[in-house]
Amino acid sequence: MPKQIKKLAVLTSGGDSPGMNAAIRSVVRACAYHDIECYGVYRGYEGLMEGDFEPLNARSVKGIINKGGTILKSARSKEFRTKEGRQKAYDKLIEAQIGGLVAIGGDGTFTGAMIFNQEFDFPVMGIPGTIDNDIVGTSHTLGFDTALNTVVDAIDKIRDTASSHNRLFFIEVMGRDVGHIALNVGIAGGAEEILIPEEDLGLDRLVDSLNRSRTSGKSSSIVVVAEGDKIGKNIFQLKEYVDENMEGYDVRVSVLGHMQRGGAPSCFDRVLASRMGVKAVESLLANKTNYMVGLLNGKMELTPLENAIKGKTKINLELLRVSDIMST
Amino acid sequence: MPKQIKKLAVLTSGGDSPGMNAAIRSVVRACAYHDIECYGVYRGYEGLMEGDFEPLNARSVKGIINKGGTILKSARSKEFRTKEGRQKAYDKLIEAQIGGLVAIGGDGTFTGAMIFNQEFDFPVMGIPGTIDNDIVGTSHTLGFDTALNTVVDAIDKIRDTASSHNRLFFIEVMGRDVGHIALNVGIAGGAEEILIPEEDLGLDRLVDSLNRSRTSGKSSSIVVVAEGDKIGKNIFQLKEYVDENMEGYDVRVSVLGHMQRGGAPSCFDRVLASRMGVKAVESLLANKTNYMVGLLNGKMELTPLENAIKGKTKINLELLRVSDIMST
Amino acid sequence: MPKQIKKLAVLTSGGDSPGMNAAIRSVVRACAYHDIECYGVYRGYEGLMEGDFEPLNARSVKGIINKGGTILKSARSKEFRTKEGRQKAYDKLIEAQIGGLVAIGGDGTFTGAMIFNQEFDFPVMGIPGTIDNDIVGTSHTLGFDTALNTVVDAIDKIRDTASSHNRLFFIEVMGRDVGHIALNVGIAGGAEEILIPEEDLGLDRLVDSLNRSRTSGKSSSIVVVAEGDKIGKNIFQLKEYVDENMEGYDVRVSVLGHMQRGGAPSCFDRVLASRMGVKAVESLLANKTNYMVGLLNGKMELTPLENAIKGKTKINLELLRVSDIMST
Amino acid sequence: MPKQIKKLAVLTSGGDSPGMNAAIRSVVRACAYHDIECYGVYRGYEGLMEGDFEPLNARSVKGIINKGGTILKSARSKEFRTKEGRQKAYDKLIEAQIGGLVAIGGDGTFTGAMIFNQEFDFPVMGIPGTIDNDIVGTSHTLGFDTALNTVVDAIDKIRDTASSHNRLFFIEVMGRDVGHIALNVGIAGGAEEILIPEEDLGLDRLVDSLNRSRTSGKSSSIVVVAEGDKIGKNIFQLKEYVDENMEGYDVRVSVLGHMQRGGAPSCFDRVLASRMGVKAVESLLANKTNYMVGLLNGKMELTPLENAIKGKTKINLELLRVSDIMST
């Protein structure tokens, strides 16, 4: 029979995303609701190995639901990838009589949690916090919705100047391996083309498409490019190619960069974070372990961490088609 | 065998919502993509009866995806509720050789469309555009997500001043019959209590809860109240009751009002609108009629208009519980 | 010869305004820069009388420059209006060896500071923090610029729905005695009429003007009303009058309320706050007392508190004229 | 005796800036108010030479006060720099019986207008529209205030992620020759250092300063860099230098780019644009010519175009000092 958990710990790890603070708050308050003590661990697994954690109560997390970033700070830890590192972390948790860990982050975070669980049979629960939406087992990762709005707002601004000058803009958005951000903001930003890692359009077809677009009467164009797009080695090479192979266009590049990770979370992300925190805590208290909490068909569901890590999210083909039709 | 549709019309009716323009744009561009002529009808059914419509092409809807309101304007029509009114509308459509109608709006709009379809066997397709999210057959109505963000942003601002002054704020949000907006923004805004039409908390329990909240160390509080909440006849009476029955609180009221309907649509609403417009047009072209386009489990699905109108959306009980736990 | 100040205190009092935190941060950091200890006083004069203050260092005010409200909280104090109350406050200051006080607030705050200075010869310096911009001796009070942007954003949203429905909206904005907010947002929001306390248009002329506006082809209209406007006892009576005396308009009312006080301060308010904090501290250190820091012709200037209080700001007649021309 | 002007033209030229549309609207409505016909010229001087203009009335400019970019579009014209080009433009204006020209733009635009005036004695009036605030004769150019808020909002977002990861961020903002944007957003964004073209800090001193900053307990830092800063050839070289010469910092770069030019104008810019448009039209009607309209000490004033072009704005030394004190 599993022993009753009396104390939980929560940490954020890997790249930060909007909604992480709301999730921390939710974990802490769900613990308070169930009379469980909750420890906040600083700087992810780094802090865990150092014992850099402290108790948080319901009031400690006041006023953070609308803050970007993470009050627990985040880090990537090399040492936790070693057996020795994980042993250190385990010792610190046992010492503090902590009986379960909620890890908020992406697939690197989950891999660490899963191995940790396998080695020490220590209860872990993952909450998917990343703007990339590249985790299987949830329709939305924490921060994805906020990042979409941040990017669309930036594209709206760039369009103002693009259409005042009849310019062609290449706008790079985050998404090294997946095009979820690019595809959504491309549609929402009214982009003429969307270049994503999952689909290799080819440079010639891009130039063809832009030429058609201009012929059909569009005087300015926006092309959204995911970081990891395969067409050009990078967006500046893309610009060079178009400069050389298209006439009459004034081509500009904008790399949106790290502002995509910040900002007050959207209502959706705050609600999602609140739901996920409660689900994570209550799942651990129900002696579930090694799962990720996710949103599937509108409901909170658990997915084994292993599946969340191994799986690869698929691009929504319907969206690709909608995007094509919209750039008619 | 149904005849081939060559021309479609699109209108917006009832209360406007963010994303309506994005939906109009999508309907128009999906028509262009399928070489169908598209007419924009002004002022909803009023304009339809008057023949106040004109052809729109892909360029006509340029630059509107990010605009609130509706370029086709909206209205509520008494005359269209009469047989004579609908006959007028039918005559105008036949005269212009229009073979199908996309109606964007809420349940009043859909009721009109359904009766019109039944009487004249005229192909109609509904797109749910309302901030209230009170339509069965779609997890999200157009504008709901944007309105949530607008309201949460306002609550964040009010909280600044509430917590600077140790005040209790009653904030009224839209939702005459349903508490979807209130419930979501209440969680996202960190409200201590959420009063919704679906649940009668009772004034005494409200005062108890606020007292507990203060005892637990909270110096300021926010209570989100849906327009249609049953507790008090209105929010000002609520304030009076609390003024009389609680000591030491400086109680203020804020009615957010019509700003909730406006603003640039969120990325989510723009993408949803784009998907719905395509689905509506292609469904009509596939000779489907009398349906509403909706988002169910992440996919575009059709629901008979009759079901969309008759049904009553249910409040998400999980959210109610999360809200309780968060105000620990 | 005045003694050298070693410790300063800072407080916020009266209604809060965006930029107060930025001003607190600036006062604290200017003290650190000059090796002066700085005390933060909680809840304005209330906390001062109770000795509710603590030392703040440069790191204490980290991350607050972009936060609305005031981390020191604010209050209105009746007791400080009595000689006994002020004596208490003086005793607490002397006990803590504090040699000067920076008071951030409006005319009520300054009146308190001035009387306190006169009675105890205690060095005081005022920073004008109020969204109303009703203080003589500065072209801009802290928070005014932010509030203008907040209100204009709300008006933009309301206009979306107003123009979708051909409606007339009365929008009430803050400004009990002065029309600065109303005048600026009225111009920026494209209002057809602006009703301010300084100018009595008269109800008949308002109706005339709205009728002319409609005749000239405007289908929707926005009228911005300052809280303190003299025309109607309040905005709802205004609506009733227009309902009765104009035909065919669907009249709606929106009272923007307390959200006008909150939100992240604009760049302008943050820079202004930073300048004012430095100026206030350095003026006290230079043995100036009983002044308010202000922005005049782009420069930091001192105005005797007495003048700041007694004076009445004047409405910019050029703006009134521009407003008339714009609603052509 | 100068002849009475019956028709005016307005154009936007050079880089676009938020508020240009509000200025166009104001010029058009001021003309309507004075019963003058107003022509909108497309694509700046290019369109002027081609006769690409059309009459605009008060309704034509409805709903544009809050739109970024310019409905008249903008361009840079090589041909207008030739005598032949200007002759073409003159012929088109005379042909259309237009008696004066309002040119909205920066110093390039004004240089063109001034030469045109000198050659053909044609009445011209400039309105300073550029986000850089680098024009003598006005405390604020149109778009400067909006750009400041856009940049500060982006910095706030980047700070979220910077402080979650203990990172050092170099953020490049616009300002090729002047540091006005950098200096203001640096203060408002709480930057540790601000690198501007007007001041050569030197790379060693930068590294020293960052080291001091870290020693004093700051775990993350933001350095704002104006495009034209002299320290490094560009911001990526700056990063390389710091990577090589400082240990333990994770250095990132963000180039904000063209989004700084777009977006809905702030209240300030809308009001300023409205005032400038009226002043420009009424000055031309009063037979003034070859001036720029500007805001000086809160009032609308005229400055000879020649002075506006030749002069070089100075960095506000008080702001530099405040910035130093704030990064204490």
TrEMBL record, chains A, B, C, D:
Principal cellular location given in the protein's record: cytoplasm
Domain of life: Bacteria
EC top class named in words: transferase
SUPFAM superfamilies (UniProt xref): Phosphofructokinase
Activity modulation comment: Allosterically activated by ADP and other diphosphonucleosides, and allosterically inhibited by phosphoenolpyruvate.
NCBIfam families named in the record: PFKA_ATP, PRK03202.1
UniProt name for this protein: ATP-dependent 6-phosphofructokinase
Organism whose genome encodes this protein: Algibacter aquimarinus
